[in-house]
Amino acid sequence: MVFTGAGVSAESGLRTFRDSDGLWEEYRIEEVATPEAWHRDPAKVLRFYDLRREQVLAAQPNAAHHAIASLQAHFEVEVVTQNIDDLHERAGTTRVLHLHGEVLKARSTVDPTLVVPLNRPSLALGDRCPLGSQLRPHIVWFGEEVPLIPEAAALIAQADHLIVVGTSLAVYPAAGLIHYLPRSAPMYLIDPNDVEVARGGTHHIKEKASVGMPALASSLIAQLSGR
Ligand code: OAD
Questions:
Q1: Which of 51, 63, 79, 213 is 20 to 30 A off residue 69, Cα-Cα?
Q2: Are 37 and 31 within 8 A, CB to CB?
Q3: How far does the centroid of ligand 1 lie from the alpha carbon of residue 52, in Å?
């Protein structure tokens, strides 16, 4: 199991949220990432996600995304990501669960199961779903339920190893997922900064993802594959 956050995409040029140059330094969550913001000023919310989408379309997967994908040749790999970009998929990872949604998709405002791909940078007021309602970004906003948590928890509960990459573990319920990992399973954390983790026996690899992830992938492949 690999559980990722914004830090895994930082070296692809996508800003994290809570670092000193993070997105939440420039924008107020209440103005761009809540259902109330959408009701108050949908155009502003759409602009915020248009910018994110433009940057995702211009970004490329980095060595960390590729190292995660390379594990698939040796192990059964499941990625649970908090990221809304598609860089894991573009690196070749086939099983990716997006807890917080996907910026390259939009969804209906009358039927949340009606999700459509968006292969263009912009989503505008007046863009409608097949049922005729305004389309909204396919993003889980603050204050909304995270519908894929039970599925992610079930995956982590069956994991033999958990690699956590580039997340501050500050946002719940996602951050609580690590507690579903069986006690006997090792957990590795790759992050250049200190992260508060309330789980004993965590191996913290204090490196950037592009350095720490390829090194850990090689070491796990050497130790475990073919056992
Ligand atoms: P954060 O911005 O909270 O945390 C990013 C983490 O990445 C920090 O621990 C950094 O130290 C680390 N980091 C920075 N550069 C790195 C690098 N090159 N390699 C590895 N790690 C690096 O981002 P998330 O934990 O992903 O949700 O944030 C969780 C959620 O909060 C996001 O999904 C988003 C946000 O608000 C929503 O919008 C719903």
A1: 51
A2: yes
A3: 15
